[in-house]
Amino acid sequence: MTDQTLTTGRSLSEFTAQLASASPAPGGGGAAALAGALAASLGAMAANVTAANPRYTDRTGALSAMAAACDAQRTALLALIEADAAGFLPLQRAYAIPKTDLERAARLADAARTACQAPLDMLAHCAQIVMLLDAARDIISPLLRSDVGCAAALCRAAAEAAAYLDGAIDGKTVGFGGSATLDALGVYDKLAAHNTVIWHWKQEANAARKAAMQTQVYLSSANGLAESGEIVNIDGTGNRVSATLFGHEKVYFVIGRNKLAPTYEEALWRARNIAAPKNAQRLGRKTPCAVHGDRCYDCKSTERICRGLVVLWEAVANMEMEVVLIDQDLGY
Hints:
globular; 11 strands; 11 helices; 52% helix; alpha/beta; single chain
């Protein structure tokens, strides 16, 4: 299979490499637009494959119209990948304006409105795709209904991501703990459009770690979540786990379904024997767990990342906490 051009001048592999890089754009919006475009592509494919089957000649017109409509949505959403990145860059420049500049607030507001336009357009296109897919169920071959189901799931994910990024936390100072889950969701870039966001993965590490401790809102994931309610986190530097215990108005724990375990003991086992080795590998540590990737060896290596354990039995006093559980495998 060849690597087809995704947007002007970029292949899929180039786009995903840029998405994984330290560059602020493309980010979550671009990923959401791509998910919506894939949903539209699956809808068009289901219509075209059905139309090619002689058994369905009685509905050729409807299938052709369906394919054309889906393809138009695909094209529009691919264009929004570029529009989203272009819309974010003026906002990034506006944040660099000195706080003493009297025009800073107005320019930030204008840039934020510009940055929000592409995600809003994505929502509109995804809503159109959902209606097309709903209509497709009645005219496509039954053998292709799973493809349309996959398309609907992609479109839902894209729409929800765009809506959340555009309207979740607003006008706050927001700190991030190190989290592959949050990185995969692309939350940083979108929240930065209308909040002051601090993350040591995106900024100078030591200063960002300290500054994130004093934000109004803090976002983290977890290494294990027990069905009995305990949240388990293991840390090496300590900033992430300490920030979930004190100092904010609210802490959000954003957790994928793969972190769930039936009991506290199993959640703790997962944190030590699944999450920690994978994170050690991600960080390039020379520890037994990183080399073998199978379990915790309780090593004494100077590169060990398992140095502190925090278990939350319930929300700490005087600070609101919320678990955002996502029906998707995310992070480690």
